[in-house]
Amino acid sequence: MVSLSTSTAIARVRKNLDEILPNDSDMYIPSGDNTENPSLDDIIKRNLPEAINAVHLSAPATSLVGDDATFVGNEVSVDTNGVMTFEINSTADILRLVSFKAKDSAVVVTDVLEESSPEGRKQLNRFIRGRSDRPRLVRSQVDKKTYKYYTLSFAPSQTTEYTPSEKIDMCKYLPVLKYNISSPATSYQIDSESVEQNVIDCLTGMVLETYSQPEKAKTFYDRSIIFH
Q: Do 133 and 78 share a domain, yes or no?
């Protein structure tokens, strides 16, 4: 994880704006930090966590690292079909599960199926659901922090609780970042340096859109989804 301060984000977005709008600088003169007429700096601060979320969602898994997950109750359950259920312990909502690997599989899962999706519903059929050599991960429709892994190579005779280390090699995720209006953060964690410029470009696009510059905003939005 890399810390991106709001002051750094402000400076870099302003630099982008100065480069493309040299004759429109008057439009971006700060005019007070209030909800009716917010300053440019305030707009950047408010949009920064949203820009980070957008980039974290659109980035390919190969560009991300993620945080190591802990689990509610420090346990996972495995039913008689070998389906493993776990709940990530996080105070924030889960934006994205970056990577998951079970102990008994060589496959790292980087995509998550929604429970209500056609592919997610297929996992209820034991003849076509995922196996240890082609596993599937499904997120609960009711509780977005709960996941089912289809399936382990071994199924117990009855539903059994295990410690995560017994069944899971890797589980990394990214939380949803939010702007706290009553106590704004001075910095936010982005996944890695490799996506930092993408965040700045996305944030610049958001600012330009706020100031009714959709064509210029699109240029930066397009840049924000190019990953190296």
A: yes
* Strand positions, DSSP E, 103-184: 113-114, 136-139, 146-150, 160-162, 168-175
What is the domain count for the chain?
Answer: 2
User: In Å, what is the CA distance from 131 to each residue of 96, 105, 154?
Assistant: 22, 9, 10
pLDDT, average across residues 176-204: 96
* Contacts with 65 (C-beta within 8 Å, 6 or more apart), sequence order: 1, 98, 172, 191, 192
User: How does 19-55 read in b/e, with b if 16+ C-beta sit within 10 Å?
Assistant: eebeeeeeebeeeeeeeeebebbbbbbbbbbbbbbbb
Enter the pTM of the model: 0.90
28 touches 211 (CB < 8 A): yes
Question: Per-residue pLDDT tens for 110-146?
Answer: 999 999 999 999 999 999 999 999 999 999 999 999 9
Q: Please check whether residue 184 lies inside any domain of the structure.
A: no
Expressed as residue numbers, the domain containing 97 is: 67-175
